[in-house]
Design brief:
Helix content is about 85%, strand content about 0%. The protein is mainly alpha-helical and about 55 residues long.
Length: about 55
């Protein structure tokens, strides 16, 4: 009886795909926005670190 309840519970998970798609798209959007804002600053920090190591 318990295995029947568990298998029935997992079969009801069909409608959750659009939620995962939305979460994935929102996460990708946040990464793009953060990268666009912080990218130039991170590039400058990296360039300064390379300049200090190489002595230029």
């Amino acid at each position: 009886m318990t295995s029947f309840r568990l298998s029935r519970h997992w079969d009801d998970d069909r409608g959750d795909v659009p939620g995962w798609v939305l979460i994935t798209l929102m996460t990708a959007g946040l990464v793009i926005i953060i990268w666009a804002v912080a990218g130039p600053a991170l590039s400058d920090v990296f360039q300064q670190a390379i300049d200090r190591v190489t002595g230029f």
